[in-house]
């Protein structure tokens, strides 16, 4: 089975702590595929075992519970795959560019996250579907965001506030409004209505317009 780039990265990340057996690789591949299609709660370990071509007991020899199996996918994705990506690529491309306007920054942010989600959809679907239900995932994500992104995001907001381009709301509020809108767009696009006849370019521009109307400084 051809694996998306992130699944390959995930398996490499897992192997840093010791070589995975062939059966473990098959279990992880099957779990990623079924979790992304059906969600964690609706997936049984028997389904994963059948898809992986192993006995159900084999799963429990490697992972004590279904939750352990989920975390074995999400944890290295966040700490060993997403975190380095955010540090090397995401932050460099999005936060360390010289943006002519806050609108240009938001456009680059949305398009970057859209391409990333599209390229790595199975893992991203699991992350977006499960983050609301698992405190461990939320805490790991918050730690990565605070370490890698928060200060640079604050600096960009304050820069365009000083230029008078966006409203003088607290930077944490601007971040909340911007990120929830971007994540909401991606969640709807790839999870809620993935089969909708999307005009992605037009929808991205509408999302940008929505954010900017809320944040643009009142000239009155």
From TrEMBL:
GO molecular function: DNA binding
UniProt keyword Nuclease, yes or no: no
Domain of life of the organism encoding this protein: Bacteria
TM region(s), chain numbering: none
DNA-binding residues: 44-63
GO biological process: regulation of DNA-templated transcription
Keywords in alphabetical order: DNA-binding
Pfam families, per the entry: TetR_N
Residue stretches making up the HTH tetR-type domain: 21-81
Protein name: TetR/AcrR family transcriptional regulator
Organism: Exobacillus caeni
């Amino acid at each position: 089975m051809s694996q998306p780039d992130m699944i390959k990265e995930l398996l490499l990340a897992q192997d840093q702590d010791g070589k995975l057996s062939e059966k473990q690789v098959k279990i992880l591949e099957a779990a990623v595929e079924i979790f992304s299609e059906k969600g964690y709660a609706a997936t049984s370990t028997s389904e994963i075992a059948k898809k992986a071509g192993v006995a159900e007991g084999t799963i429990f020899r490697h992972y004590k519970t279904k939750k352990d199996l989920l975390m074995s996918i999400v944890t290295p994705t966040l700490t060993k795959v997403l975190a380095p990506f955010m540090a090397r690529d995401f932050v460099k491309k999005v936060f360390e560019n010289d943006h002519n306007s806050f609108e240009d920054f938001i456009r680059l942010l949305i398009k970057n996250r859209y391409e990333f989600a599209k390229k790595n959809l199975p893992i991203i679907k699991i992350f977006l579907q499960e983050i609301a239900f698992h405190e461990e995932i939320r805490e790991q994500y918050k730690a990565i965001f605070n370490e890698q992104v928060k200060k640079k995001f604050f600096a960009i907001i304050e820069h365009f506030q000083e230029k008078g381009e966006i409203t003088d709301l607290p930077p944490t509020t601007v971040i909340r409004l911007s990120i929830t809108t971007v994540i909401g767009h991606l969640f709807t696009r790839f999870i809620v209505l993935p089969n909708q006849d999307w005009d992605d370019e037009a929808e991205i521009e509408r999302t940008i317009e929505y954010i900017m109307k809320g944040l643009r400084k009142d000239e009155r």
